[in-house]
Amino acid sequence: MEDLDRQIIELLSVDGRMSYTDLGRATGLSTSAVHQRVRRLEERGVIRGYRAIVDHDALGLPLTAFISVSPLDPAAPDDVPERLTGLGDLEACHSVAGVESYILKARVGSPGDLEDLLARVRAAANVSTRTTVVLSTPWEGRPVPPERRG
Amino acid sequence: MEDLDRQIIELLSVDGRMSYTDLGRATGLSTSAVHQRVRRLEERGVIRGYRAIVDHDALGLPLTAFISVSPLDPAAPDDVPERLTGLGDLEACHSVAGVESYILKARVGSPGDLEDLLARVRAAANVSTRTTVVLSTPWEGRPVPPERRG
DNA sequence: AATGAAAGGGGTCATTG
DNA sequence: CAATGACCCCTTTCATT
Questions:
Q1: Which residue spans adopt a coiled-coil conformation according to this UniProt entry (chains A, B) (predicted)?
Q2: A138 touches B: beta carbon within 8 Å
């Protein structure tokens, strides 16, 4: 990973809509050179896409929760992620090393919606759940800068 | 929140670099109408920014972990988030209702880096930690669609 | 609040070094 | 792999409704 690529990634992590012209000015490359590098980063899967960062409160989804999941039948084949896909309200699904098997991140509108979601999760994947409600989020989604080599 | 705004937000959540022209085509609005709406969504703070989504493996940060944090001195003023800001490697900090006080999300390069980070977290905020290592991430950062009204 | 037009700048590609 | 130049499309603004 070249230094120029890391610079470009860092800039696009902070402002995903920055123009190739501005990226060029910031990196000392021409517009088309930057464009070429970005295309290659996208093709290689280093840059996976671009997203608008949205305020969940404004969207009517003020309640965030982490749901830890344990399969009830340890003998059953583990297809929990597949069963939870398309359930809605779930932003992430991590397989973890710990007491439980998965950690889910949920965004809902109200405690009632969370109650509904938990019922749907348990039913869809045959699991028990342990839920941790988020009270506030001092910071989130902060881009972790790419590793620098000495 | 109007339906057109929700449509625009959904489109920009999936492709944060979509052009105003394409947004117009997708929503049936003129380019300038879309542009005006996006500007207002940004000004109101509904759209908080745009980010490139980056593959952490490719950046040399293949190890993700959730760190649950408990203050050692419950009498001390709670400024954990401030103390952890700028520590690096931390992507998020949530204040939570549960046995522990905070959940942190970390991205590091190796178990050794995680060990270092945990020491820094404990020292900086005077806390004990409980860490859950992520083994794999079936999905993450999936945009939760804005609430639809019946 | 949306439209359409006009002016300027950026994206895109082929070519060259 | 980067730079240049040309062309086209998009962005941006403004007057109009």
A1: none
A2: yes
What value does the mean pLDDT take over residues A86-94?
95
**CB–CB of A140 and B17 under 8 A?**
no
pLDDT for A69: 98
d(CA A38, CA A46): 9
Cross-chain residue pair A54–B9, CB shorter than 8 Å = yes
- pLDDT digit string (tens) for B7-34? 999 999 999 999 999 999 999 999 999 9
- Is B3-44 assigned to CATH 1.10.10.10? yes
B137 touching A, CB under 8 A?
A: yes
Chain B residue with Cα closest to A103? B134
Q: Answer yes or no: is pLDDT of B124 > 90.
A: yes
Share of chain B above pLDDT 90, in %: 89
Q: 3-state class of A76 per DSSP? A: coil
> Distance between CA atoms of A45 and A38, rounded to whole angstroms?
11
CATH 3.30.70.920 intervals, chain A: 57-134
Are B90 and A142 in contact (CB < 8 Å)? yes
